[in-house]
Amino acid sequence: MSTSTSPRSDAVARLLGAVSLGLGASELVAPDTVVSMAGVRPSRRTRLLTRALGARECGHGAAILLGAPRLVWTRVVGDVLDVALLAAGLVKNRSSARRGTLALLVLSGIGAADVYAASTTGVGGAHAAPSH
Q1: Residue ranges of the chain with pLDDT lower than 50?
Q2: Cα atoms in the Cβ-side hemisphere of radius 13 Å centred on 69
Q3: What pLDDT is attached to residue 29?
Q4: Integer CA distances (angstroms), 127 to 11, 16, 122, 123, 130, in order
Q5: For 1-132, where are the alpha helices, taking DSSP H only?
Q6: Which 8-state DSSP code applies to residue 130?
Q7: CA-CA distance, 22 to 57, in Å (whole number)?
Q8: Taking the complete model, does pTM exceed 0.85, yes or no?
Q9: Can you tell me the distance from the alpha carbon of 54 to that of 73, in angstroms, rounded to the nearest whole number?
Q10: How far apart are CA 69 and CA 44, in angstroms?
Q11: How much is the pLDDT for 117?
Q12: 18-40 in b/e burial notation, b at 16+ Cβ within 10 A?
């Protein structure tokens, strides 16, 4: 199956790849700050998990920037995991509801952007070219 992507959708995918690298680096370098901003109390467990998520996020970024823009779908899967883990962390730790709600809204917005970008890359989206 061949796919066609527009220069604009490729640029959006590349931007999201760069964002992944930046976010992943912040999770690796400053996990306590990241979880605190999300409304979760830092702990040894959240530090380890956040660093693992940071490594995954850097992987997404590298895959998108070095591979094909359609790899933005990996970010979509990561977004689902991130929302689930944040929600669980907020419930378990009885953390800051205000910060947690804001973080969930931000993650949902990022997820929506990722779904849009992924759907415009041609794989699984409305812009896929017919195979010949």
Answers
A1: 1-3, 124-132
A2: 25
A3: 98
A4: 16, 19, 5, 8, 9
A5: 7-29, 31-37, 44-66, 73-93, 97-119
A6: P
A7: 9
A8: no
A9: 17
A10: 35
A11: 85
A12: ebbbebbebbbeebeebbbebbb
